TrEMBL record, chains A, B:
<dbReference type="Pfam" id="PF18032">
    <property type="entry name" value="FRP"/>
</dbReference>
<protein>
    <recommendedName>
        <fullName>Fluorescence recovery protein</fullName>
    </recommendedName>
</protein>
<dbReference type="InterPro" id="IPR041601">
    <property type="entry name" value="FRP"/>
</dbReference>
<dbReference type="InterPro" id="IPR053747">
    <property type="entry name" value="Fluoresc_Recovery_Reg"/>
</dbReference>
Amino acid sequence: MQVSEAEWTDIEKNIAKTAFDQAYKREIEALLKQVQQEVCSLQELNDLWQLHDFLSARRHEIEGKYNYQYSALLFVFAGLVKDGWLHLQELEGLGKDKLSKVAALARM
Amino acid sequence: MQVSEAEWTDIEKNIAKTAFDQAYKREIEALLKQVQQEVCSLQELNDLWQLHDFLSARRHEIEGKYNYQYSALLFVFAGLVKDGWLHLQELEGLGKDKLSKVAALARM
């Protein structure tokens, strides 16, 4: 299922980068908004440590997930589609084989 | 410099517990307020990870610091006085030896 960089055309690379950045932007904006909302309801120290635990988990997840390497990109896109940060239509222009792989992985 | 529990009278224990709780309340309230202010100015992911680093450090510090054991209490009070979370006057009623130890440690 891995696709090396050589198998991406320049046009596909542009589409991929735009989609990747868009998903990242969406997820980060949602996270910032969520943190701002949660902070409003902080009442006591335990709430703050829960926020800290939440940030630890999200940081670990996000730093691992947004890995822009062509060999992993179809998996990354599939995860982003599955989680709602990216729409399949935003990948239109990629080769049909790539699109169908992303769609199949996203359904798993 | 350590003072075992046997060396604390009941009156001193009450004064100590009240002062300890008061300092804790002050520090936690200040921390919650600080986090709420910092979250207002979150612009991007790096700001959020800076907040996460800050919370990691504060959690480690606070969980270590608020240790209510009589043998350690004079050191704890000295640190709280030094950092401004407790006033020496709030410890009035403790034996003079204890007060002077706290005052001396707080100046170090």
